[in-house]
Design brief:
The chain has 849 residues and is α+β, with helices and mostly antiparallel strands. The protein contains 27 helices and 21 strands. Among the domains are: 213 residues, no CATH class; 177 residues, no CATH class; 168 residues, no CATH class. The radius of gyration is 33 Å and the shape is elongated.
Length: 849
């Protein structure tokens, strides 16, 4: 093909696109939305990772190893032993925790350090950084924050910061500012409060205790130094690599991030239907032109190339717009992702986006790649058709009619392939989503056959309701099957995603509510504020516990202690309860020995949550080794309980057994039972009154705690709801695009109807009824696909991601909303084409006949 003829073909293609600007724009918008969602999720996830990485680097500094205690603290005498007897000069004591600073809506990480020992580890916290030792270590509550934070708070050196630690209020005098010379250091230090070790010990009630000891050891330390140092450590203490914290966090959040990425791909999948629709329309509209070009000698490959060039142009423009809009969307989503991470896992503050190469490259590859894949079949159809048939519009519809059965067979085969993937042992999350993709594609291929069958049922019904126009509307859906089936399929997939995710969320919510009703047996619960919503990482003041227990109207009580411990499976959450056999009424056992509760208070046995058992592949009778203050101790797993408070897993032990191995009398939570005849709300007010001035704590009734727990649950699914609605938006654009294509494609046909006496009102009725029929079909078809998606989400993806057992709940409300959503979306999308068709002058449309 000569360059001249190639240019002519390309100019002809551009002219066609520019003559249909709305359809061209909608096509670009469909690609842009899909790319935007994928890019925004990737940027949000990478921003959260970068923020955590920078924060960890700032706190860890240049430390290669850390000495940690059995639970969450370590005797400070160990530091003296290591530094003097072990002769490890590059060692530094550290006290860590979290605090809230009045005036800033985020949690700060508190770092208690010894500035004299800090120089090799963290430049910003050392004597060399200019810290005035006489003020910093004088015994007064003094500290440092980053310059950017000081500007945000509008404070300067000498001012006082009001902070809250575990519900207790303190004042910190600002004696210096940490210089943040570049963006990286500013991001790393913008949520850090640096204190002297002794000040941090007072704030966290850790007198004589440290969180850890940082070490800088040479590369051969594993062979020589570490074994010798371990002989100097008390029972339960150990030396671990400093990067193990990052590895633990990555394991915690891996499933969460993967599920978000998979959901974001749904919008792109729906967008592919839209692209296919667009390119099919483009080809169909130019069938006479393509036929004439073929008759004049243009080859099949030249036709194929020109159509794919159009697809690349649409994909490129959509991708660029999608990447730009994805960055803006990420500014919203990153807040939701960060909130979910704070609720579920650990404290994280993301103050700005990290826009890397990979999210943008991935968005570009998916956007252009998805466009080419979706466009290839229409392009091939245009190039392969014979000249004698390409000039006949009816040939395209006859082809789709002939292919209904083969498409359905392929669809069933794809569904069976998806089922086969589900049966792969240890398939993992990726296999679950792959199976879901196969089933969605398989169901979509069956949709043309289902449309024909549904039309046979709906045609007489619409005939009775809307007369001849009703019958014509239904018939029009079938006669334009190559156009309508794709639009309906896009809407079906999007609405089915709403059903699937909605049923999953409802199932999860119902299960959690049922579990809470069983778990929360006490009348009143007392908890200090925690840095992470689902973790009890703060302690109640002992005096407050005694006062609340002795409050008038309190019949009995029990306590809970939650700590992180090291086990043979890593760092795990250990919960100690003092309920004894009464706990059998609180905990729902999935598996357990018949005599578990009788032996619970006397033997070295424990209970693990089903999530913990799934993640660590342990079961009844297995041994779990916990590093305690008495050394490494073995405990037998004798029960597995349902627990929906953590997707990481929990180990539960009796408090009496816990006290035998841990020198820890702290209490993380208190449950109180009201005396008979005492109003719970009145008791709550009485308890709140008595707690004033001692510690700010959450004192909630049974009902109040349940509502607060459900609120956190709902908050964690906000991102999912947003992604689901974006997929619906893409589908809505797809339906609008399809209907506009029909309007342009059938202008002469409709003009003939107008010329034969159909009024503009009747034409409006015809088009709106037809779009309503498409919406009804999409709504009905979305229900079985949505339930299938929900089943896979609940019983496969959820189980493989987290290990929870959920009750499968299908509410009629979700299904009715799905059908209504599809109908409303179709009707809204049909308003403009209806108006356009009714407004068109028949003479203009028939002029070329």
């Amino acid at each position: 093909m000569s360059k001249y003829s190639s240019d002519l073909l390309w100019l002809s293609s551009l002219r066609f696109l520019l003559q249909h600007p709305w359809h061209f724009a909608l096509s670009i918008l469909g690609v842009a939305l899909g790319v935007s969602v994928v890019v925004s999720i990737d940027i949000s996830n990478s921003s959260a990772k970068t923020a955590f990485s920078l924060s960890t680097e700032a706190v860890t500094g240049k430390a290669t190893h850390q000495i940690q205690g059995a639970a969450e603290d370590l005797d400070e005498e160990v530091y003296q032993t290591i530094r003097i007897d072990g002769k490890i000069r590059k060692s530094a004591p550290v006290v860590e925790g979290y605090a809230r600073i009045t005036g800033v809506n985020r949690t700060f990480q508190v770092l208690g350090v010894d500035p004299i020992a800090e120089a090799p580890f963290r430049n910003f916290a050392s004597q060399e950084a200019g810290i005035e030792l006489s003020e910093f270590m004088a015994g007064e509550n003094t500290g440092l924050i980053a310059e950017s934070v000081a500007q945000e708070l509008e404070v300067s050196i000498g001012d006082t910061l009001a902070i809250s630690v575990g519900g207790r209020s303190f004042s910190i005098r600002l004696i210096g500012l940490i210089d943040t010379q570049d963006d990286r250091s500013r991001q790393a230090l913008e949520s850090l409060l640096v204190l002297d070790v002794s000040t941090a010990q007072r704030l966290f009630d850790m007198q004589g205790k440290l969180s850890q000891i940082d070490l800088i050891l040479p590369q051969n330390a594993e062979e020589n130094i570490i074994p010798e140092l371990k002989t100097m450590l008390p029972d339960g203490a150990d030396i671990i690599r400093s990067d193990s914290r990052t590895e633990t966090v990555e394991q915690m959040t891996r499933a969460f991030e993967f599920n978000l990425q998979a959901l974001s791909m749904l919008a792109l999948l729906v967008g592919m239907f839209l692209i296919y629709n667009t390119m099919t329309f483009s080809v169909v509209q130019r069938r006479p032109l393509i036929g004439r070009l073929r008759a004049l000698g243009v080859t099949k490959n030249e036709i194929l190339a020109i159509v794919l060039k159009e697809a690349v142009l649409i994909g490129l423009l959509g991708t660029v717009i999608g990447m730009i809009s994805g960055i803006f969307l990420a500014q919203v989503l990153v807040k939701l992702v960060t909130q979910s991470i704070n609720d579920l896992y650990f404290v994280l503050s993301v103050q700005e986006l990290t826009i890397g190469f990979f999210p943008l490259a991935k968005g570009a590859l998916l956007g252009i790649g998805a466009t080419l894949i979706a466009s290839f079949w229409p392009a091939r159809e245009a190039s392969q058709a014979e000249v004698s048939t390409v000039l006949r519009r009816s040939s395209n519809e006859s082809k789709i009619t002939k292919r209904i059965l083969p498409l359905a067979i392929i669809g069933v085969s794809a569904g069976l392939a998806g089922l086969g993937i589900l049966l792969i042992p240890n398939g993992g999350i990726a296999a679950g989503y792959s199976s879901l993709l196969f089933m969605i594609v398989g169901f979509s291929l069956i949709i043309p056959m289902l449309i024909v069958g549904m039309a046979k049922v709906l045609r007489p019904v619409l005939g009775k309701v809307n007369g001849l126009i009703g019958k014509m509307s239904v018939r029009g859906v079938v006669t334009e099957l190559s156009r309508t089936s794709v639009a309906i399929a896009a809407l079906v997939v999007a609405v089915a995603a709403t059903v699937g995710v909605g049923v999953m969320v409802d199932s999860f919510r119902t299960t959690v509510v049922s579990w809470l009703e069983s778990q929360l047996q006490a009348d009143v619960y007392v908890q200090p504020p925690s840095s992470v919503s689902r973790n009890a990482d703060s302690e109640l003041v002992p005096m407050l516990v005694d006062i609340l227990k002795e409050t008038e109207g309190v019949a009995e009580s029990h306590t809970v202690r939650s700590v992180d411990v090291r086990t043979n499976n890593g760092t795990d959450n250990l919960v100690a309860i003092d309920q004894g056999e009464a706990a059998r009424n609180t905990y729902q056992l999935k598996e357990g020995d018949s005599g578990f509760w009788q032996d619970y208070t006397e033997e070295n046995i424990l209970m693990v949550s089903e999530v913990y058992a799934y993640r660590n592949e342990v079961g009844l009778g297995d041994s779990l080794f916990i590093v305690t203050d008495r050394g490494r101790q073995g405990f037998e797993i004798r029960a597995i309980n349902f627990d929906y408070a953590s997707d990481i897993g929990t180990i539960t032990i009796n408090r009496e057994i816990y006290n035998q191995y841990f020198e820890d009398e702290a209490i993380s939570g208190l449950a109180l039972y009201a005396e008979d005849g005492v109003e719970v709300d009145e008791l709550v007010e009485r308890l709140r009154e008595r707690s004033k001035g001692l510690q700010e704590v959450f004192i909630r009734s049974n009902k109040g705690l349940r509502e607060a727990s459900i609120e956190i649950f709902d908050r964690t699914f906000t991102v999912t709801v947003v992604l689901r609605m974006l997929a619906i938006l893409v589908a809505f654009i797809g339906v609008l695009s399809a209907l506009m294509a029909l309007q342009l494609e059938r202008s002469r046909e409709l003009a003939v109807l107008r010329a034969n006496g159909m009024t503009p009102g009747q034409l409006w009725n015809y088009v709106i009824t037809q779009t309503g029929v498409m919406g009804v079909m999409a709504g009905i078809l979305s229900v079985p696909l949505g339930i299938l998606m929900a089943y896979i989400l609940v019983y496969v993806i959820n189980l493989r991601s987290f290990g929870w057992t959920l009750q499968f709940m299908i509410s009629s409300e979700v299904l009715i909303q799905a059908v209504a959503l599809a109908v409303v979306a179709a009707l809204l999308a049909g308003i403009y084409p209806s108006w356009k068709m009714a407004k068109t002058n028949p003479a203009d449309a028939l002029r070329n006949e």
